[in-house]
C-alpha cells in the first residue's frame, strides 16, 4: 500500500495496569498507526483490525510479564 497525501493515518493505543503485589504495579501499553484510505468505512475497518492486533499483543506481553514473576 502506497501512502498518499489524501490518506488517513488512524492511531489506536491500548494498555493495561497489573497489580503485582507489595505496592508494585506494571503497565503495558501498545499503540499502532496504519495508513488507509480516507473514507469512514475504511477507517473504521482499519481501527477494528488494529484493535484486535493490539489486544493480541497486550495479552502476549501480559503473559510474558506474569511468567517472569513466577
Structure write-up:
The protein has one helix at residues 40-69; strands spanning 11-21, 24-33. The chain has 70 residues and is of the alpha+beta class. Strands 1-2 form a two-stranded antiparallel sheet.
Reconstruct the topology from this structure.
Layout: E1 11-21, E2 24-33, H1 40-69
Antiparallel strand pairs: 1-2
Rg, Cα atoms, Å: 16 Å
Count the strands?
Answer: 2
What is the CA-CA span between the terminal residues? 43 Å
Across the major sheet, the strand order is 1-2
Strand content: 25-35%
Low-confidence stretches: none
Give the helices and strands as they follow along the chain: EEH
Question: How is the biggest beta sheet arranged?
Answer: 2 strands, antiparallel
Helix content: 40-55%
**Average pLDDT score:** 89
Short description:
The protein is of the alpha+beta class. The chain contains 1 helix and 2 strands.
Short descriptors:
single chain, 1 helix, 70 residues, 43% helix, alpha+beta
Amino acid at each position: 500500500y502506497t501512502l498518499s497525501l489524501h490518506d488517513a493515518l488512524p492511531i489506536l493505543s491500548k494498555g493495561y495496569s497489573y497489580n503485582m503485589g507489595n505496592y508494585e504495579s506494571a503497565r503495558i501499553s501498545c499503540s499502532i498507526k496504519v495508513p488507509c484510505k480516507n473514507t469512514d468505512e475504511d477507517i473504521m475497518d482499519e481501527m477494528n483490525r488494529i484493535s484486535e492486533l493490539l489486544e493480541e499483543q497486550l495479552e502476549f506481553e501480559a503473559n510474558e510479564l506474569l511468567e517472569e514473576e513466577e
